[in-house]
Amino acid sequence: MTDRRDFLKQSAAMAALVAMRDPRIPPWMHTAVGSVSLSAPPASVAVIGEPAAIRELLATAVHAATSAGAAYADVRIQRLRGNNVFTREHQILGVGDSDTIGCGVRALVDGTWGFGASRDLTADGVAAAARQAVATARASRVARGTPVQLAPTPSHPDATWSSAFSTDPWTIPLEQQVDLLMRANAAALTAKNVQFVTSGLFFVKEERHYASTEGSTITQTLIRSAPFMAITAVAADRSDFQTRTNVVPPMGRGWEYVLEQDLVGHAAKWGEEAAEKLTATSVTDGRYDLVLHPSNLWLTIHESIGHPTELDRALGYEANYAGTSFVAPPEKVLGQLRYGPDSMNIQGDRSQVGALSTIGYDDDGVQPEDFLIIKNGIFSDYQTTREQANWLKWWYDRQGRAIRSHGCSYAQDWESVQFQRMPNVSLLPGTADHTWDDLIAATDRGIAIIGDGSYSIDQQRYNAQFGGQLCYEIRGGKLGGMLKDVAYQIRTPEFWNSMTMIGGKGSYLLHGTFSDGKGQPSQSNAVSHGAVPARFTQVNVINTGRKL
Amino acid sequence: MRTRSLAAEAAPMSRDALEALATRAIKLSHADGAQVDVRSGVSGNTRFAVNELSTAGDVSDATISVTSAFGPKRASVSTNDLSDEGVRTVVSQSEQLAKLAPDDPEAMPAFGPQQYQTIEAYFESTARVSAKERAEAALTALEPARAARGIGLMAAGFVVTGESASVTANKAGLSAFFRSTSANYTLTVRTADGTGSGWAAADDHDWTKLDPKAVAERAIEKAQRSRNPIRLEPGRYTVILEPQAVGDLVQLVQGELDARSADEGRSAFVRASGGSKVGETIADSRVTLFSDPADPQLRSAPYDGEGFPVGRQVWIENGVLRELSYSRFWAKKQGKEYKGQSGSLKLIGGPTSRQEMIKSTERGVLVTRLWYLREVDPRTILYTGLTRDGTFLIEHGEITKSIRNFRFNDSPLFLLNNLDALGPVERLAGTEGSGDVAMPILKARDFDFTSLSDAV
Questions:
Q1: B157/A238 touch (CB, cutoff 8 Å), yes or no
Q2: Residue B201 near chain A (CB below 8 Å)
Q3: Which has the least CB within 10 A, A333, B83, B159, B389?
Q4: Residues A226 and A348 in one domain
């Protein structure tokens, strides 16, 4: 959900891709930052600056904000690099690298927020951004309501953290990346009726430096990788075309993750799956038991649990854009709302190794903690920041818990203000060690769905519709033929309460998105969702095939 | 009063400064060809919700992007470090990458110098807007919402203004400059009991054309009127879609107008016997859909990403598919004229007013806007999504009741075939999609609402 005023964030490479207006470019790429690889990065752009110099700039900005009258301020000097290579069939479509560096200052004056940001990384530049933040806060005071208060957090005077990557994609020669994609494309094109394939590698690297008036100074490095393939088969008589995409999830890891996915080894099978869709049976409308693979269920979790349990949404702070939530008001749902069966435990965390939202410290300077959003089927907590945690004082008091942010503050880059964004939100494994095959075997008549397809949900997260990549009939505990034109429509509480069987530890997988939109101006974050396969009873399935 | 204090960057860079940077980068280039894009912008926003201000910010940035080409090898690199060292680095890095890139068999030579029409999209009135003025605009909604008697009101909105300037230049002598301002205001007012919600918005390059008070009045009226919605059976209904709802759906056609996809057999515009449906009737005869940077309601950049001039392009004329969009390579391969890549979009309106549309409706649904539209099937441009923030039942020529929101599964192509009436055209503020878009209110038959949503 990009906003036109995001132009400052669009890399040239990404703009070029969007300019191609290729309908097969997945929507998330329209918001992702572009990205390709160099044999060796030029030394002159390797780092923002020396650690001591950055610390000095952070301190200068913090000082400028307090001198101008801020009661609280935090400063982020960040570098965001994007790198991509994009191909079709046997040729290159685009190679790009983007780099943006600057300083964003958030200041609290008389209980009102103000934000200022500049790419001018001189002492004068960052001080001006700080004074801008204070001035904007003052000018906005006229429209203030309740003064902002921040929940306490320990300060981290000299903290560092790095995400889990063993090979920085920026060290991989472009030739090697292109070679991998070309071999994968060639393998996909060996399948019958497969005529088109697009593929790409997208990498993001974030260098985040943070300091606050409370004495924290934090440095973090993150890498995210998204391999991409979309394989299209066209019927010989031009009566149909079908695409197999979303073949592997993006992950908060490096080049080693790309290699593990073995695009070349799998591409022929993905191509055959695209071709098989041409002759698949068009589904009959009706109610079916659904067995959903983690590669499909992650997106349903994201939309129907992840978003409605954001506290700002629940209280109305996103009403004008992303929407509000049916999980509200807090006093009527916390500890009371039955979201699903006893076997349903949903965890929020920023700690799973390789997950996209995983981070050492959030943009409030908080070390995030793992927490249960849904415990034994009952809604038990929201996603929070320092500003929001105070709003649930009554609930934490009742639980005998300290008021503490869950560490969900995030800004997409230096020129965006931080706010509450989604941690990794995951469906935890069941106690019995069921596998995907066990779930199929225990189902008499239903549909098994693998991979994420079309997705849409209302602004309070009740009514959703999801497609898939691969849909198969289940008859008498066995997988039957392939189905197409399948979409399932749910009402969130009924859907989750119809979950009758879930997989065990061995079937837990991480999937996720490179770009999830929220806020005004719209910001993008990356988030993973762990899931086990799960079975849902008597879900409404519609046929989406139409004739022009 | 101006309250900006980012002294160094209170305004975008001047044309001279942008061109000087582009020239410096081009002079540093050792490649066969090089395109340089320099963009500079400032923007300020004020956000409010739950009847109070939540965040406000003022931001400035500038980027340079260099695409270097060695024969058929190309790569793009961008940075916001505009120092001499930064420019040197971005040029050399793009050259280094381009040399490593495989040959692009579809690479096309750069354009030489071009002539552009003048588009007035820059308004001093917008460039001058301060954080205080944004807060005051917000107060036109916050004050009546806070003061509401009886069932209370909750206002949430976003005011954003900005100015940007950019230069696109290349080694073959092309140089293009465009600057514009933008002002955008969206507002959602909900009733405190949570049963009603109304949305209204305004957008213009010129801040003085926005009327925040009128926006507040519309949103409040819709919120109050939409309380306690009744449930209506899903099914096919006659609909009156207000301009934003039309845009939410019809804008989606633009991304599907790619000639190559149709020629390759993978688009809604595939002709079974080969080629595309250009020349065939695909919509009601009153449907004309076009792009035109010079249209007073659009005022978009007069050139595309490669600096090629774009003019008026009519995609659908009187219901007939007139043309599809060609990339340079595909135009050459197919022997077609290249016309650039247009950004704007407008559907022409008609003589029927909103009131006349309602009056002539025996039973139908009035829709304010649509939400979370996602493609379900590219073969028919079938999308799903939901109505939002003001959905009403029309009976016997009058709005009679507020109704629960619906999910739809339908295609803009079906909508434009089932057309009943067209009304006045508005420039859109945008919801999920955005850009320079203008759409009329319209009435159509048999819109496919497939399920009910409890969301307010």
A1: no
A2: no
A3: B83
A4: no
Q: Under an 8 A CB cutoff, do A4 and B96 touch?
A: no
What 8-state DSSP symbol labels residue A45? G
Provide the token pair at B68: 């270097």
CA distance B433 to chain A (A): 7
Give the structural domain span for B293.
229-456
One-letter amino acid identity for A64? A
Contact present, A371 and A525 (Cβ < 8 Å): no
**Rounded to whole angstroms, how far apart are CA atoms A128 and A105?**
10
Q: Are residues A63 and A128 in the same domain?
A: yes
Cβ-contact A111, A253 below 8 angstroms: no
How far A471 CA sits from the closest chain B CA (Å)?
A: 15
- Is 0.90 topped by the overall pTM? yes
Give per-residue pLDDT as tens, B290-339.
Answer: 999 999 999 999 999 999 999 999 999 999 999 999 999 999 999 999 99
- Count the domains in chain A: 2
User: Which residues from B are below 8 Å from A387, CB to CB?
Assistant: none
pLDDT at A38: 32
Point out which residues pair with A518 in neighbouring strands: A523
Chain B interface includes A110 (CB < 8 A): no
Return d(Cα B332, Cα A308) in angstroms, integer.
50
Ordered per-residue pLDDT tens for chain B, 456 residues:
333 334 334 688 999 999 999 999 999 999 999 999 999 999 999 999 999 999 999 999 999 999 999 999 999 999 999 999 999 999 999 999 999 999 999 999 999 999 999 999 999 999 999 999 999 999 999 999 999 998 899 999 999 999 999 999 999 999 999 999 999 999 999 999 999 999 999 999 999 999 999 999 999 999 999 999 999 999 999 999 999 999 999 999 999 999 999 999 999 999 988 889 999 999 999 999 999 999 999 999 999 999 999 999 999 999 999 999 999 999 999 999 999 998 899 999 999 999 999 999 999 999 999 999 999 999 999 999 999 999 999 999 999 999 999 999 999 999 999 999 999 999 999 987 778 999 999 999 999 999 999 999
Residues 2-41 of A with CB under 8 A from B: 2-5, 7-8, 11-13, 15-16, 19-23, 27, 34, 36, 38-39
Say if residue A142's pLDDT is above 50.
yes
CATH code of the domain in which B207 resides: 3.30.2290.10
Burial-class residue B292 by CB neighbours within 10 Å (0-12, 13-18, 19+): buried
Residues in chain A within 8 Å Cβ distance of B5: 128, 131-132, 135
pLDDT for res A51? 87
Please check whether residue A7 is in contact with residue B73, taking contact to mean a CB–CB distance below 8 angstroms: no
Report pLDDT for A43.
33
Query: pLDDT band at residue A28, thresholds of 50, 70 and 90?
Result: very low
CA neighbor of A227 nearest in space, from A167, A269, A190, A184: A184
Q: Which of residues 449-478 of A touch B (CB under 8 A)?
A: 454-463, 465, 467
* Domain shared by B387 and B249, yes or no: yes
Q: Is B4 on the interface with A (CB under 8 A)?
A: yes
Domain that holds residue A255: 4-278
CA distances from A292 to A41, A250, A477, A502 (A): 43, 19, 14, 10
- The angle formed by the CA atoms of residues A263, A21 and B419, to the nearest 5 degrees, is 125
B386 touches chain A (CB under 8 A): yes
Residue B1 lies in a domain: no
Task: Select from B207, B223, B157 the least CA-distant residue to B187.
Answer: B157
Q: What is the pLDDT of residue A45?
A: 38
pLDDT tens across A61-74, in order?
Answer: 999 999 999 999 99
A207 touching B (Cβ < 8 Å): no
Q: What is the C-alpha to C-alpha distance for residues A99 and A42, in angstroms, rounded to an integer?
A: 13
The interface pTM score, or ipTM, of the predicted complex is 0.94
Q: How far apart are CA A147 and CA B375, in angstroms?
A: 42
